[in-house]
Amino acid sequence: MAHLRQVRLGRQNPLYYEVLDGLNPGEKVIISGYDLFGKNEHFKITIMEYFSQIIKSQRAKKSLTALNLFGLSVCIGSALLILFYVRFELSFDTFHDGDRIYRVESRLYEGTF
Questions:
Q1: Closest by alpha carbon to 3, among 20, 25, 22?
Q2: Of 23, 32, 50, 111, which residue is least crowded by CB atoms under 10 Å?
Q3: How far apart are alpha carbons 54 and 64 in whole angstroms?
Q4: Model confidence over 54-89: pLDDT tens digits?
């Protein structure tokens, strides 16, 4: 939960602000503007609000959403195919005792030596 407080700033550069008054050591701050904050004293963002924002933005950009979902499904499908292939290849000869497996080889020669 974020609380709107007045702070007094000192020196500043593009990366850092010196906070002279209004914060305790170790407190985290929101460095963006309070334009959406309004006149509220407390600001709480819930998971459902995030999902509603995502759904609204996806409805506005339907073709981009479809392209992203298609790409995501291709990536997940490819990853599953690779996973199943590797699992299948590694499953051979896992039920045998490796010390007792021998290879039998025969060569057939025709003609005279």
A1: 22
A2: 111
A3: 13
A4: 888 888 888 888 999 999 999 999 999 999 999 998
Taking the C-alpha atoms of residue 95 and residue 99, their distance in angstroms, rounded to an integer, is 12
Q: Which two tokens stand for residue 30?
A: 């929101």
Interacting residues of 9 by C-beta distance below 8 A, sequence separation 6+: 17, 18, 19, 20
Token pair in block for residue 113: 């030596």
In angstroms, the CA 90 to CA 41 distance is 60
E strand or H helix that includes residue 2: strand 2-3
Q: How many residues does the chain have?
A: 113
**CA-to-CA separations, 60 to 10, 14, 66, 73, in angstroms, rounded:** 42, 34, 12, 21
The helix (run of H) or strand (run of E) holding residue 81 is helix 62-90
